UniProtKB/TrEMBL annotation, chains A, B:
Source organism phylogeny: Bacteria, Bacillati, Actinomycetota, Actinomycetes, Micromonosporales
InterPro entries in alphabetical order: HTH_LacI, LacI/GalR-like_sensor, Lambda_DNA-bd_dom_sf, Peripla_BP_I
CDD domains: HTH_LacI, PBP1_LacI_sugar_binding-like
Domain (HTH lacI-type) ranges: 15-71
Pfam families: LacI, Peripla_BP_3
Keywords of this entry: DNA-binding, Repressor, Transcription, Transcription regulation
Signal peptide: none
Stored PANTHER family: HTH-TYPE TRANSCRIPTIONAL REPRESSOR PURR-RELATED, LACI-RELATED TRANSCRIPTIONAL REPRESSOR
Keyword Transcription: yes
UniProt protein name: LacI family transcriptional regulator
Database matches in SUPFAM superfamilies: lambda repressor-like DNA-binding domains, Periplasmic binding protein-like I
One GO molecular-function entry: transcription cis-regulatory region binding
Amino acid sequence: MRNRFPSSRPAGQRATISDVAAAAGVSKATVSKFLGGNKNYYIASETRERIAKAIEDLQFAPNAIAQGLSNRRTDTIGVIVASITNPFYPELIAGVEEALGGSEYTLLLGSTDEQPAKEAALVRSMLQRRVDGLIMAAVTMDDAEVSRLVDTDVDVVLASRGLDTTLADTVVIDNLTGARQAVEHLLGHGHRRIAHLAGPADVVPFRYRIEGYREAMADAGLDGDERLVASGNPAEAMTALLTLPDPPTAVFVANDRMAIEVLEFCAGRGIEVPQELAVVGFDNVWVGRLSGVGLTSVDSKARAVGRKAAEVLAGRIRARHADTVQLPAPPERTVLQPELVIRRSCGCVAGEKDDDAPDRSFF
Amino acid sequence: MRNRFPSSRPAGQRATISDVAAAAGVSKATVSKFLGGNKNYYIASETRERIAKAIEDLQFAPNAIAQGLSNRRTDTIGVIVASITNPFYPELIAGVEEALGGSEYTLLLGSTDEQPAKEAALVRSMLQRRVDGLIMAAVTMDDAEVSRLVDTDVDVVLASRGLDTTLADTVVIDNLTGARQAVEHLLGHGHRRIAHLAGPADVVPFRYRIEGYREAMADAGLDGDERLVASGNPAEAMTALLTLPDPPTAVFVANDRMAIEVLEFCAGRGIEVPQELAVVGFDNVWVGRLSGVGLTSVDSKARAVGRKAAEVLAGRIRARHADTVQLPAPPERTVLQPELVIRRSCGCVAGEKDDDAPDRSFF
DNA sequence: CTGAAAGCGCTAACAA
DNA sequence: TTGTTAGCGCTTTCAG
């Protein structure tokens, strides 16, 4: 195997710009200009060739760390999600990657496992690593913390879990409307006792989903029974709900993760879904599409949210690095519309309205 | 809100070690020693306090990029997976994070979408970013490419997709045995016409799964019918298989992603699983556990593989950075044993042997 | 115990 | 068109 490092440095050590300069008989500056590509530096085509050859010979690739230090930008963006194993987030990440497609950005990833301490540590770590921007798809921080974050020199966009804040760019879906749609659909099926299995109240979207539930119930003149709002471990919550004197005939669950557990709970107890209990989830994770699952759910557009978040962030970064110095534009808030996807678990006839592309593969 | 940057630099600019040094009335070198923590530098406790105060006042956090340049290590490890939306990989990533738990490592993530070109680009990008190590859970490279990669100064471990190579540390499961178990189980159910839906042949594990299938069939004196080995789009492949003159009564599918599509295909065609067609998958992705799915599958231990890969890698990095210079140990190959997890789709009675912890949440 | 100085690999004025 | 020089922010000898 021929030695790929003909320079004087020991094997396994990568060539530097100085090696290239020496090999090409030019200065580092010239090589650097050659690398810069974009800026219209003038450099003799003959020199250009010599440099290209040296680079090729030495298998040189610029050290991005050194470039980062000098350029004050790393072409890296951080993505912090709540739970990498919840299929909602890989989908969101895929959206981010999609949007960043051709660009030179690389993703620094972190999963908080829903732990605020881990979230804080990840933010710190990414800031120290000088990411150019940060997409937060896990936010348990309060406004003060967000504002401190926004005060730094990295651009931040809050995705999906976004707070109410107007401090930072935000990409969310309309959780309130989504929740209303779900509950209204259940009302349309004739249900009157509709429960809500809520998510942790320290996560903003869950608060809106509760509110949407309450509004829809109130509009139907069915509000007031707080016993119908449960939370915590799905199995336990369902047990409590179903042993109520006047148990619910339907439940709107705050996300699909929990909704699937409700389905499993019912399967385990021999409770027929949707006959004995109708179930509607939230997120429309791909699993719900499986014919053996058939979960009706509000699509929270994970991929689109990720894509949009990345676009907004890229725009910010571009603006920041633009030559023309100007005040940053005020935070931008994008609200995507969710969409109720109807399947079996709500009581609709199978296939009635399920318009999923049947040939699309699952993952 | 009080200004968090009392130094002279403009808001939004982070304090540097020089700012701290100035504020504490010491030199950068001393501050750096203070930061180093571990090495037993002697520094007066009074100075120590002044520095600590300055750091606190200035909200100083060292620039990891600059540290990286100086230290020649970034405390970052790259993870390249084949497809972030295939639940197998988030699980593997979770294993990596688990193992890296307390340490200061951060993950640089990339998903290749099974495209060799993207894989190459990601490797390049991560190398340029000077990751300390690389976990490749997507390898379509050949030995030559791997060897070139191993020749660099980053430690590489091949996880799950590992080649046959002995050039790099590898953590895999015993795919051949796993496949044999699957097929033997089907044989035990009395099946004689067992098909195999194979994965892309350029991915090593899939080749072993085919081989395991062939061996098991041969051992049962059932080899020879190559028409039973299909590949490509699951729906099309199944259609072809089922229109054979002597169609299979069971199919061993190379991974759960495809197995699930087979299940959907059957549901769509009204083909009863397992009565008309028994199905066994590979990976034991959590989805298969759902009561509405019940997919019998060979567990490929994604989490354990991720964990082990991270441990091996961390060990390598530690060794490389150790003061005592020594020849690197030869590549280490870890082979984890897969495990057949039995559910409905193979023909076993539901619940018969499904020993999943029933209360474990899904994701 | 502390500091001066050199250097990690690259970029960006500014000269030449 | 090319080279010189001075950093980017931190670490690490090596002298005090």
